[in-house]
Amino acid sequence: MHEFKIVKNLEEMGRAGAAILAEEIRKKPDLILGLATGSSPITLYRELVRMHKEEGLDFSSVRTINLDEYVGLPVDHPQSYRTFMNEHLFDHINIDSNNTWLPDGMAEDLDEEWSRYDALVNTLGGIDVQLLGIGPNGHIGFNEPSDEFSNHTQVVPLTRETIAANARFFHSLSEVPREAITLDIRHIMQANKIVLVATRNKEEILRKALQGHITSQIPASVLQLHRDLTVIFSEGE
Length: 237
Ligand code: GLP
Fold this sequence. Notes:
The chain has helices spanning 10-27, 42-55, 81-88, 110-124, 160-166, 185-190, 203-211; strands at 2-7, 32-35, 63-66, 68-70, 100-101, 129-132, 154-157, 179-182, 193-198, 229-234. The chain is α/β, with parallel strands linked by helices.
C-alpha cells in the first residue's frame, strides 16, 4: 500500500503523521518506533506531545530506535540528535528513557558501536513503524548517495551537500560533524510500515525519489519497493 497525502501546512503534516503513529501505538503499546530528526518531523512530535498531554496517549511501553547520530558530538551538545529527541519528544511524554536508543557518536570504538547498534535492532526484532524525513540529496537517515545501497549499520562520511544543509544548525560550517553513524537501508526497508514527512523545499527530490529510477544515488528511491509507505507532503509553511 502506498499513500501520498498532500497537506496545506506543517501543522497539518504533523497532525496527519502523528495520527498514524498514535494509531499504531494504541494497537501495539510496546511497539518499536523508528525515529528521525531534522526540521520536518518537529510538528509531528509536537502533536504526539499534545496527544499525550490532552488525550493520554501512552508511551510507557513504547521503545524507540533513532536512525542516526553525529560522530563526535557529546550527548549533551545542543545539536546532538539525543538532545533534539529529548527536547522535541522524550522530555514531554511518559516514555522510559531506558527504552530510547540512539547510536553513541562518542564511542571510542566506532566500529564496535555500529555493530552494537545493528545487533540491538535485530535483538528487538526490527522496527514496527519507521518515521523518515528526506535529505535534499535524497538521503534517508544518513544513508548518503553512493554506488550501492548499504546493508549494514555503519559510520558514514557526510557529503558536502549534507554538511552544507545541516550547517544552519551550527555556528559555522567547520563545526558540522563530518561523519555519522546510521542505520542502514535494510533496517529501514524491513520496517512493517514507513511514514515519510517532507516539506515543500523537498518537492523536486521527492518526485525523483518516488517517480524516477530506483538508484542508490537517490537512497530514498528504494522506498518505492516498500509494501506500506505513506508520504505526507506539506505544500505550505
Ligand atoms: C538530516 C537527518 C535526516 C533528515 C534529513 C532532512 O541530516 N539525518 O534523518 O531526514 O537530514 O532534514 P530536514 O527535515 O531538516 O530537512
